[in-house]
Amino acid sequence: MTIKTTPDIPGIRQYNNGNFFLIAGPCVVENHDMPLEIALVIKEITDRLEIPFIFKASYRKANRSRQDSFSGIGDIAALESIARVKSQLDLPVITDIHSAQEAEVASRYVDILQIPAFLCRQTDLLEAAAKTGKWVNIKKGQFLAPESMKFAVEKVTGTGNNNVMITDRGSMFGYQDLVIDMRGIPAMQEFGHPVILDITHSLQQPNQPGGISGGKPAMISTIARAGIAAGVDGIFLETHPDPSNAKSDGANMLNINLLEKLLSDLVMIRQAYLRTQ
């Protein structure tokens, strides 16, 4: 079963043109003004291209290789900064959570709760996110087969909340690399929920000796084009005005100056894909 319409998320623009939807933003809130500044740029581009847009930013980075890595500006300050994007730009917003206790707090500020890949099997976390009544985006663990994600989905839907999305961010390919298996897209679409491809984290190179993940951002377009051609419902990406100076995941983020060209190309590929259906 392939979902060909935009999820019914509060605030998301419904263009009814068959386009993919986009989840995009910086890796983490670095300061109070940054989310709104980046969201404005993405909104202008997606409005022109008629792409439904969900703004993404992490309010805290709990999963860092090194103890001295930047983790955030403070939970409530960052959540308020994300919520300002929602209120001022009338956009749906998403952030990731790491514990059952965080689900209720974050749900006061955002429309979608994201479950990190490493935590996608945590029953109490999934159930807590589901019980808020919010949409839940579950990132597929790098250690899981696509077919196994149905059990993560069932932990959400088993509470009575059917508002679930699944995001593939690749599978471990040795200790320091990831690989995307495009067969996972139709496999997970069989569950009856939107499937999203993370085109930036899937190019991450984790477990580097220096404790800072590497990446291959030059391959973002390649992964994105392949995902759209394979019929993915949504695209997830992280973007930044100056990735080389980003405080988290700069090595695999897309420079925001390259975003419009990438999305324009993907819209054309999507239109070609739809003609084959």
Tell me about this structure.
- Strand 3, helix 3 and strand 4 form a beta-alpha-beta unit.
- The longest helix has 17 residues.
- The mean pLDDT is 91.
- With 277 residues, this protein is α/β, with parallel strands linked by helices.
- The chain has one domain: Alpha-Beta Barrel (TIM Barrel), CATH 3.20.20.70.
- The chain has an 8-stranded parallel barrel, surrounded by 6 helices.
- Helix 1 packs parallel to helix 2 and helix 4 packs across helix 5.
- The chain starts with 20 loop residues before the first strand and ends with a helix.
- It is built from 8 helices and 13 strands.
- Its EC number is 2.5.1.55.
- Pfam families: DAHP_synth_1.
- It catalyses: D-arabinose 5-phosphate + phosphoenolpyruvate + H2O = 3-deoxy-alpha-D-manno-2-octulosonate-8-phosphate + phosphate.
- One of its GO terms (biological process) is lipopolysaccharide biosynthetic process.
Question: Structural class per helix/strand content?
Answer: alpha/beta
Number of strand elements: 13
Shape: globular
Count of structural domains: 1
CATH architecture label name? Alpha-Beta Barrel
Provide mean pLDDT, rounded: 91
- Name the helicity range: 25-40%
- Determine the strand fraction and express it as a percent band: 15-25%
Q: Radius of gyration over alpha carbons?
A: 17 Å
CATH class: Alpha Beta
User: Do you know the CATH topology?
Assistant: TIM Barrel
Question: Can you count the helices?
Answer: 8
Strand order of the largest sheet: 1-2-3-4-5-6-9-12
Catalytic activity: D-arabinose 5-phosphate + phosphoenolpyruvate + H2O = 3-deoxy-alpha-D-manno-2-octulosonate-8-phosphate + phosphate
Domain DAHP synthetase I/KDSA: 16-264
Pathway: Bacterial outer membrane biogenesis; lipopolysaccharide biosynthesis; Carbohydrate biosynthesis; 3-deoxy-D-manno-octulosonate biosynthesis; 3-deoxy-D-manno-octulosonate from D-ribulose 5-phosphate: step 2/3
Subcellular location: Cytoplasm
